[in-house]
Amino acid sequence: MHSEELKEFLIKIERLQSIMITVATRNSNIYEEEHYAELYQEVELSIEVMQENGLVISNPNPFSSLTKLYEYCLSHLNGSAWRHQRIRYIYEIYLNLFGQIEEFLSRQQLEILPSNDISTFTISQIEETQKRISQLQAIMIEVATKKARVQDEEELYVQIYQDTNLKINHLKLLNLSIKNPNIFRSLWHLQAYFYTEVDLETSASRKQYVLELYANVVSILKKVLQKYRLKATSQNKLFQESKLYFTKEQPTPSYNFEFTSQIEDIKALNNSPTQGVSSNTDTHNVQFGFIDKLPEKKFSPIFITDSDISSTSAETITDVLILTALQKEQDAVLRYLDSPRKVQTSSQTFYRAALKTQKIDTVYQLVILCLPSMGNLQAAVITQRAITQFNPSHIILAGIAGGVQKQSSRYLGDIIVGEQIVYYELGKQTQHEQGGSEIKRRYEVYRPGKVLLEAAKSLPIQNWVMSVKTSRPDGTTGRVIPQVHFGVVASGEKVITDPSLINELQSDWSKLVGIEMEGAGVALAAYESNFLPGFFLVKGMCDWADGSKNDAWQEYAADAAAAFVMELLKSAPFESKLRLEPLNSQKPLQSVEKVNKRSLGQIKMIICQRLVHDWQELADYFDIPPHQRAVFNRGREPQGVWEWLEQRNKLSELKTALEVIGRNDLIKELNQ
């Protein structure tokens, strides 16, 4: 491609970044950014053309729609400095692609210069390069110490940055070992970096960071200038001495690509020894420079495609996704399962389990996932991602809820099942002429899946009440046997302490049985999913939604709900995705029938899922450099290894490598 085409390509990426930042920082509505999809496709096409012309690049942006970007930001970049986290993340997506294209442009602009012609090396080059660096540092320090605003300095900074980059690449073309340590093409990126690094909270620390950023390069340039001024020497000798200086002192800037220090939940996972990441391997601080082949930063897609989840392996099939909002609710569910297996990644922790049913040929594969926090918005986002990841046939939301009293028929510890889930937060506030105001509510109503609802209504009470493992807080007083109440469950965004709201909801919904905070979000995600899983809500009443909170019943209520769910599933109300041979029904997990031959995508997914703890050994076998491992997306390092092999046509060597590291079980998957 010609220089002008490459420049236009970079402009399109900058436009994409601008739209992404605007949406991610909530300054624009997602659905108003129609230009994004068109730009994304144009960038994708340009990358394909460049690949055909021999450039080793790929599209690092996994977000083909702004909705996916926004959902990712809500669930992953939501710390106290969320705005800066999101800005920084978006700049980092295209970081290495910019470096590759800009270096290629520099080479085109300087291609008239022979790489071994030292006549183009002049002392004025060194002086101009040093001058430009000093100007850059001055602007960066002004911003770092809050003496200047980013918007006031951005245009000048970008001009000087590009000029400095061109001069450094000119020296590099002369075979001088110089690298540009400054990866901040924009002051907005620099500012976001400052706000998301714990060690850069003060003006003094930020100023020191800027000074150290160019310290090695400036030191070398000063030595060359000093040598020239103190001792007259020939151009050739000066060049050779300069080359020696650059060889001896390589710039070693440090940049934390993952910026996990500001994201507390991810930070905790990073410090955990159970992530499959070697604790003695530093994969954060990497050297960055405009070298011949920049390590390409890979951002694996957040959303798994349909083809990725079509494997027939029991490890990848999910019949039922059980969601809980609290850890105590998840613990209750796990008590009713035989040997649930914990699966932990950098972004989530969940459990897998197999549940035998009354039918000899039916075993359900379950995934149990606890939501990171309460509330319908978070529930909708996480459920959508879980649906795409696991493709369950049914989703069950289990746990505890506030009950609505009805004289002599409802007691704490009873079960509520939602026949309708009503989201009540929407409404219109109107002013009365006489003064005061009124909120006219606009309800959104969701209905559960018919299969599980009908099965629940016909489930004999003795099938589950005797299996409840937790003792009732009231001892022997009161009604001992819990009942099941089918009706309307109201779902909102806050804990209810005002009885007047209950009265208002009851006046509109006479069959109101309970109130909770996640059902509408989970139901919405299920309704809007292309996979159309059935949705079902089961919760135990732990208090009355009137402000008289009673924590004493929470454990029992959660346990009763879990017991009901398990007995409901054991009745085998729907067909499992696994088809078992009757003779082998005692070993259901080994009795999966083979269907179509697996695609490469299916094999990749299965192998990568099982390499979470061994990917380092595989990387060692193929001698993947540390700086390239550092750009693998945290929690998806096996996918990074696979793609590294795929780009270098080395997948054919994977079978031998797996044998060497002792993973013969995965060789069987390759042979499928």
TrEMBL record:
Task: Give GO terms for biological process.
Answer: L-methionine salvage from S-adenosylmethionine; nucleoside metabolic process
Query: So which domain of life are we looking at?
Result: Bacteria
Q: What is this protein called?
A: Uncharacterized protein
MF terms from GO for this chain are: adenosylhomocysteine nucleosidase activity; methylthioadenosine nucleosidase activity
User: Per its UniProt record, what CDD domains does this chain match?
Assistant: MTAN
Q: What is the lineage of its organism?
A: Bacteria, Bacillati, Cyanobacteriota, Cyanophyceae, Nostocales
> Bacterial Death-like domain spans which residues?
601-671
Which segments constitute the Nucleoside phosphorylase domain?
321-569
Natural source organism: Tolypothrix bouteillei VB521301
User: How is this protein annotated for GO cellular component?
Assistant: cytosol
Q: Which InterPro entries match?
A: bDLD3, Nucleoside_phosphorylase_d, Nucleoside_phosphorylase_sf
